[in-house]
Amino acid sequence: MTQIKERYTLTQSQKMMVFILSMSLYGLSNMITELVPEVNVGPVNFSIEYFAFIPLTLCILFHPFYAAIGASFGEIIFGEIMLGQFSGFGEMEKLVIFTLAMYVAGIIVNNPKNRVQVGIAAVTGVVIHQFLNMVSDIAKVWIGVEDFEAVSGLPQSVVAIEGFSFLNDVLFSGILFALLPTLYLVPRLYGKIEPLLGMKPCDNKTKYPISGILKPRFILVGVLLSAAAMGFEFLSEAGIDIFEWEADFGSTAIWISLAVAAVVALITIIVLVTGKNKAKRGMANE
Amino acid sequence: MAAAKSFADKLSFEQIKIELLNTAYGNDRTLIAKLDPRTLFLWYAFFGIAPWFIHSRFILAGMLLFVIGTTIMTKVSRLIIFILILGLLGESGYLLIASLFFGGNLGIIIPLLVLTMKLSVISLASITAFCSMSPERLGEGLLRIGVPGQVSFSISYGYRMLPTLFEEYNHIFMSYRLRGKSPEKHGLFYFRTVIYFIKLAVKSFYPLLLSMAKRARTTVEALETKGGQYAFRNPAVKKLKLANLRIGKTDYFFLLISVLYLISIFISSHYVSF
């Protein structure tokens, strides 16, 4: 009788199925969008940014976390590694941003038959994703260009371009490739695709246990990642300053920044290795 | 127009598939492909991060030359290089035009060139490191540095499945085109035709979603019969899987050459100023 708010749980294999499904489909779509040429009408860029409707649909229909992370991996594996555009560390940022956006879109919907909810979720997902992307792009030029503020016209133009492309993507890709297709696909697939994976369709009685995903470890990793991102920014700013200040010392500054890069590389490797060990222990405890 | 047409011919689905298969399986006989994945990760860990911290044009140019050399050594497909160049040029070109619009002068070209150089070093380094690695080796390497087994499985799975998936999508798309009716008039700026193709591209995913769901289930069931979930977290299995990874003479040689080269440009940058 107390089954009304039953937990939506999946077995390990079902999680893997959702992951694989989301990965392959979004990966494939990513590849297609990478290869379709874009049309520019003046500054307005009518490119197919991404087929956001695939992860959105899957996040709404299945467990949002596994669908979202599967889609992110799909993008990296098919869209980046296979096309030779794998940018190593940059992919971490993409992974976090995209997973977050899609996951949020997925938890908004608790009744896939409700079109209003689905629509709101689709738009929210795209807006979150594009906004975070815009912020990170601006930050990249900021870091990459020495004396960013001193170069006349550059700060305004970066903000203008990124802001414009944000609006462009939200309005064009967001409506054409997220909102409309999601509204078309979700009601058609609901109840049809779940049995193929051997699971019940989720209805509005089931709730995703947010506390089950936001485990301390997950939060800790998130905090560490954002701290690391900020640290990167700070370090590079500092690197520029040292370089300017010690201009007559010549290569000293370069050696410092070189050492910083080497240390960061080393730390990354160490974190990866110890993370593995921790995960192993965590799994043993479970 | 004729050039555009011949280009469009080259970019057919078939052509792309062949190029991709080449990328995945074609060039595993080059020197760099023979290196241990860990060596390449280490190498990339430097070339992927260091450019952000270097503002000397001389050093950046030296690094760029070096990664161009290594990229040539990997014999990477031309499609990939083309996509890369297009992306880089597009980005900086846009920034240049917009800053001129906001009252900047041509002095902006130099900082932008430096930025482009940084980005090129990073992307060419990633092409060198990751394009020459066959999917199996990349998966093994990632497993070795502690990425969960699911990820390396997904990579090998992706590489194997992609050609099949691509073909299936192409079939569905073509059958929709055969059965459907394309718009009689192209409309303003080919508006109707574009909308028609976008609709088809989206609709083609509907059957693919269902068939892929079936396939995902089969895959996971097959994985289960082989004890996949258990194998992902068992250290003994991992050890057995990674037994063939070995850092040999070539790896040390490659790293040594890179370090020597870097040291030489850093030292010569001390004497050369430009």
UniProtKB/TrEMBL annotation, chain A:
GO biological process entries: cell division
Alphabetized InterPro entries for the sequence: DUF8171 (IPR058484)
Stretches assigned to coiled coil: none
Highest taxon of the lineage: Bacteria
Keywords: Cell cycle, Cell division, Membrane, Transmembrane, Transmembrane helix
Signal peptide (from-to): none
DUF8171 domain span: 17-279
Chain segments annotated as transmembrane: 16-32, 52-74, 95-112, 170-191, 212-232, 252-273
Pfam families in the record: DUF8171
Tagged with keyword Transmembrane helix: yes
The protein's name: Cell division protein FtsQ
UniProtKB/TrEMBL annotation, chain B:
Spans through the membrane: 41-67, 79-102, 108-130, 189-209, 252-272
UniProt key word Transcription regulation: no
Keyword vocabulary terms for this entry: Membrane, Transmembrane, Transmembrane helix
Bilayer topology term: Multi-pass membrane protein
Compartments, as annotated in UniProt: Membrane
Name of the featured protein: Energy-coupling factor transporter transmembrane component T family protein
